[in-house]
Amino acid sequence: MVEKQTYEELEKRIKELEQITENLSLLLNSHNDAIILLDNNHNIIECNIETLRRFNKIRDEIIGIDSETLLGSELYQKRKKFLDQVFKSGKSCEFEDERDGRLIHSIFYPVFDESGTVIKIVITASDITEERYIENMLNLEKHIVQNMAQGVSIVQPNNGTIIYVNSFFEHIFGYNSNELIGKNVAVLNAPNEKNNPEQVADEIMSVLNEKNIWTGEINHIKKDGTTFWSYAKISAYNHPKFGKIWLGIHEDITHRKQVYSALKESEKKYRLLVENLHEGIWLIDKDAYTTFVNPPMAKMLGYTIDEMLGKHLFSFMDKKGVAIANINLERRKQGLKDSHDFEFIHKDGRLIYTLIETSPIIDNNGNYIGAIAGVIDITERKRMEDEKQQLEYKYYHSQKMEAIGRLSSGIAHDFNNMLSIILGYAQLSLIKIDISSPIYDNINEIISAGQRSVDLIKQLMAFSRKQKISAQLIDLNKRIRQNEKMLSLLLGEDIEFKFIQGENIWMVNMDPSQIDQVVTNLLVNSRDAIEGVGRIVIETSNKVLDKHFCANNPCATPGEYVMISISDNGHGMDKLTTEQIFEPFFTTKGDRGTGLGLSTVYAIITQNKGFIDVFSEPGNGTTFKIYIPRSEKKPQIISETPIIETLKGTETILVVEDEDLILKVCRRALEGHGYNVITAGNPSEAMSLVANHQGDIHLLITDIIMPEMNGKDLSEIIKTMKPDIKVSFMSGYTSDIIGDFKVLEEEQRFIHKPFLPDYFLMKIRKVLDQEN
Fold first, then answer.
1. Domain boundary among 568, 599, 629
2. pLDDT for res 758
3. How many folded domains does the chain comprise?
4. Do 251 and 137 belong to one domain?
5. What CATH number has the domain bearing residue 122?
6. Among 269, 279, 484, 715, whose CB has the most other CB atoms within 10 angstroms?
7. How far apart are CA 315 and CA 344, in angstroms?
């Protein structure tokens, strides 16, 4: 029974051993390492399949052979010392060596018998080529990461804990790794304008959870409390050991932001400076297309900035400007700067005069890539310079006129006094003579000649602008028609004369004698320009002048005018002559001309707020166009002047005049019409007569300019002596001399010399009949 159980147990034991053997075989053959069992003679007694694969052998070729046969003599000798060491010491050993380009890690394990003697050795040989490569690469990566010039951090996102930082991260934050590992990443974030450090981290976490990557700028705080900016790229990864992690790469951009901020501030100041300059700034590219203009530049030409950008430089100038600009652009391409005046075209079509300073823009390779220009609007300055030139010319002209005027005023005073005497006695004589008498016609001719002389004085004064004119509403068509026959005779039979009347011509407000003088002088000028047979045409028309017309005619102002055009087919004038014809004493007629005809025309028209245009070319004749402002006054019906027999009176009148002959004319005219007359040759005599006169003196008639005292002051003194006395003034001086006495403002009380007795008596009667 015992033997039977023993057998069964043995059988069971055998099966168990077989199972163990099978399991060990499976275990050995499933291993990636080569495993070999050696006896104490270094013979191979067992190996696994990986060994057969590595040596490319079958089992029967390996089992039982010695190690030297399998490994070769050289490699065996290297291994033998380790085998002997293990057999001798009973301790395992390991080493690495290279075989056939592969790195092998070997371990020799001793196998002991029951007495503790090493009887066998188990060898494991692991091919660690790939593992070592990966390890080396990881070490390299770690070295690179640890020593890169960017801060690297690894954070666990679930709690924000820092688990790794590299050296540069330590450097830029001022911590060592031991101080940071395990800390929350929020301690490194400085609060921004909106959020605290924790909220900054939460914002980043929110993006990473959605997109797995976040990039941006973070304001950090260092260990010492100072802040700095980093540009961070944070990526979410799944790590086999740590699970989900955030890998952050940080670059210190504090200096860059400072530079950028300074650059931005500099750009802001530059832009502020450029945009607020009074001068225009204009940039073009190499093909002359506009790339930049500042607001003053765009405003200067009437555009918006957007309207100018992209447009060619030539779009803002005329053909003449384009020709000049082409030359200037070639100079820019040669690297030359320039400064000059230039004319641009405003959006509304007018010319803008500028001073432009241009410099080329050259790139680092020396290539021309465009130009920059500073532009100053000098339109107003040019206008002022033109005005200055005109004013200088006018001043020069006025100086000439002033000299002539002073001469004319003196002549006119004496001439007026003489005419007053001649006309006075002539008309007083005419009253006494029967109309049928031959002497009547003779004296009447004397009066007519005297009146024509009065007109000559007026013309002389108009030329010097010293005469106070007697303006009235005039129909120019009617006035010229009245003189048409006389004008035709003036021109002679060889010249065809034609008057073309404009329809519905407006009225003008002028002295009629001035109109006659203007037309006559211009016709004489045209007549003298014609050699032999010729033609002269006078034409009238209404004209409305706008600002565009006036812009090209500096003497004109916008408004309504009546134009008189006088054209001839004479020899014409060149430009230089045309510019001088209105100057006093300028003449092209030699000894035959005085040089005053056209000067007088210019003076009269200017005095009446008009202007003259002249068009002339040598060989093509001349056209004068006279523009006289339209008058808005309505024509008045003027009563006829009372005849001299109705101008009688009985009042007492004091006449004060330093010219004895005029004093006598006045006395005879007044006494002949019933007045009581007291005369005085100077102010002293007048005051003495008034002081000693017992009765009333109803009227004082006094000359204004006298040796002892002016008539104005004399009248004030006499009024203190005779408060009820009325006053009339008379003078042959021009208005510029007697204007300061304020007597011309009261036209009804002023008597112009020279005068006829009927005019004199009429003025006196009106004053006497006025209420005080």
1. 629
2. 86
3. 5
4. yes
5. 3.30.450.20
6. 715
7. 9
Q: Identify the pLDDT of residue 2.
A: 47
In 113-242, beta strands by DSSP E = 118-127, 151-156, 161-165, 213-221, 227-239
Q: Which CATH number covers residue 661?
A: 3.40.50.2300
Mark whether 253 and 176 lie in a shared domain.
yes
According to the model, what pLDDT value does residue 643 have? 53
* Weakly modelled stretches of the chain, pLDDT under 50: 1-2, 591, 593-594, 638-642
Residue 346's pLDDT is 94
Query: Can you tell me the distance from the alpha carbon of 488 to that of 496, in angstroms, rounded to the nearest whole number?
Result: 8
Q: Cα(394)–Cα(392) distance, rounded to whole angstroms?
A: 5
Torsion region of 16: left, alpha or beta (phi above 0 gives left; psi -120 to 50 gives alpha): alpha
432 within some domain: no
| One domain for residues 31 and 46 | yes
Tokens (6 digits) for 73: 């003599």
Burial code (b: 16+ CB inside 10 Å, e: under 16) for 126-165 equals bbbeeeeeeeeeeeeeeeebbeeebbbbbbbbeebebbbb
CA count, 13 A, side-chain hemisphere, 179:
12
Same domain, 230 and 172: yes
263 assigned to some structural domain: no
CB-based contact 175:162 (threshold 8 Å): no
Record the tokens describing residue 180, joined without a space.
């940071």
CA 163 from chain center: how many Å?
63
Closest CA to 459 of 517, 413, 522: 517
Rounded CA separation 438/442 (Å): 7
| pTM for the full predicted model | 0.37
Residue 500 lies in a domain: yes
Among 199, 229, 258, give the residue marking a domain's end.
258
Tell me the C-alpha distance between 568 and 120, whole Å.
Answer: 147
Verify that 480 and 613 share a domain, yes or no: yes
- Rounded Cα distance, 620 and 105, in Å: 121
* 622 and 508 fall within a common domain: yes
pLDDT given for residue 429 in this prediction = 80
Whether the CB-CB separation of 659 and 711 falls below 8 Å is answered with no
158 and 207 belong to one structural domain: yes
Q: Which domain holds residue 675?
A: 644-769
CA distance 415 to 655: 21
Amino acid sitting at position 546 = D
In this prediction, residue 131 carries a pLDDT of: 84
Alpha-helix residue ranges (DSSP H) falling in 30-128: 49-55, 59-62, 67-71, 73-89
What's the confidence (pLDDT) of residue 1? Answer: 45
**For 428, phi and psi rounded to 5 degrees?**
-65, -35
Helices (H), 465-499: 476-482, 484-491
Q: Where are the alpha helices (DSSP H) in 608-679?
A: 660-671
Residue 376 confidence (pLDDT): 92
